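Z., the sequence and structure:
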Amino acid sequence: MSMFGDGLDQAVQKAFTRPIPKSAGAQMRYLVKQLKGTKAVAQMLRVSQRTVERYVKDQIKKPRRDLAARIEREVKARWQPQIRAKAREQAASTGGIVIDTRARLGYTAPIGSTDQDRIRHLTVALPPQYAARLFDAQERGATDQQLREIAAEALKEVYFQDGGRRAGSLEEVRFTDIEHLEFDL
């Protein structure tokens, strides 16, 4: 997926009330139950249907590293959907979202101002409307670049312009060379 999409997913996963199943067999049984059959799970994981059946019966206990990662990713994507939706709704309506990033940030401003890009480490609480925009764009299948633009616009308003109290003539914020990105609800 993308850096922004994965970051948003990890933030929502922190709201889970129970851990995901640990063993490969338990994870596979969960996927079979969710997708209503071994054939659909086999197609999704790109393995044979018989392999899925053997994991369900605990005849195979240790998957290959790449298969284990795919199984875990698919389980996490489906785990506790109501809690995931509730966490997103709360962030989008009242709570907002916190972005912690180390990236090259600069801006376009009128002539005579210092708009040089530089590496900055920021931890900024974004208001709920930006959390809602990020989650809505992610659900619509937005690209990493589109999510980055929404985050840059949020940083422009909250960090650079301080909610309209300064830098009113700021035109655009450049958000590039991301070294670290993490979201929290």
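The longest helix spans residues 144-160. The chain has a mean pLDDT of 88.

Let me know what you think.
H.
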